[in-house]
Amino acid sequence: MHRYLLPFCAAGLLLAGNASAASFTGTTDMVVGGLINTVDATSDLTSSLRDDKLVLDARDDAARFVASQGELRGAHLEAALLHIRAQQPQLGASDLQLAEAILAL
């Protein structure tokens, strides 16, 4: 009787291993795809704002904001954040992420 169960157990383990690998691959593809979309959106944002005087004027405020972990907010940064969100309404970035993007310009 045990001799007949061994092939079924082996087949079950193989199927379970394949399902786990497929699930891991699908999850990894989804996470990496999301990161790629975020990087693309950020690079599109930075390239379009690189010549924007309002955003460039906010660099000092953005540096203070990032250094204080979001505690110190300047008027130039507030204006730039409003401007960026008006230009890119689909962008779901936080204020801290946008301030870091301003510093990267």
Which ranges are low-confidence, i.e. pLDDT below 50, for 5 or more consecutive residues? none
- Helix share, percent: over 70%
Q: Provide the succession of SSEs.
A: HHHHH
- Average pLDDT confidence is 73
Task: Determine the structural class based on helices, strands and strand pairing.
Answer: mainly alpha
Counting structural domains, the number is 1
- Terminal residue distance: 71 Å
Strand content: under 5%
Largest sheet: none
Question: Over all CA atoms, what is the radius of gyration?
Answer: 24 Å
Structural shape = elongated
- Number of continuous helical runs: 5
Number of DSSP E strands: 0
Could you explain how this protein is built, in words?
Helix 3 packs across helix 5. With 105 residues, the chain is mainly alpha-helical. Helices cover 80% and strands 0% of the residues. The protein has one domain. It starts with a helix and ends with a helix. The protein is elongated. It contains five helices and no strands. The longest helix is centred in the N-terminal third of the chain and has 48 residues.
